[in-house]
Amino acid sequence: MSDNTSMDIRRYRSDDLEQIARLFYETVHAVNRRDYTARQLDVWATGEINHRAWDASLLDHLTYVATEGSLVIGFGDIDVTGYLDRLYVHKDFQGRGVATAICDRLESETSAGRVVVHASITARPFFEKRGYKTIKPQEVERQGIILRNYLMAKDL
To answer: What is the pTM of this model?
Structure first.
């Protein structure tokens, strides 16, 4: 893990959404390709998100954005029930503690006693290292394509 002195973590703002949408697409297609097929990646991250719905969701949830200068390098959000909805790190900033820093903030600031996440095959080891336990494997269907993920939880 490198020195993160230049990384800042702050609350989400609506003007972050353009970078977040691009980060989501590029990260899924670059990082998750080792565990998913091209067709699976295409239905997971189509390149088109509902900007209004994402913005409303990110504003409604406890959402943190990691930045380096003006660049968004990661983001994560959790709702009031403790559901960790999204946690993504820019493809060029993997392995630098960005997800750990965001997840630390989300877990420490949620009022829920338990955090639940639908972890991808790729993200499962990250959550296991944080003490999350697999409840069950899942198969999610999108546009006729099956994606495997894992329902995981951690008591806080």
So the answer is: 0.94
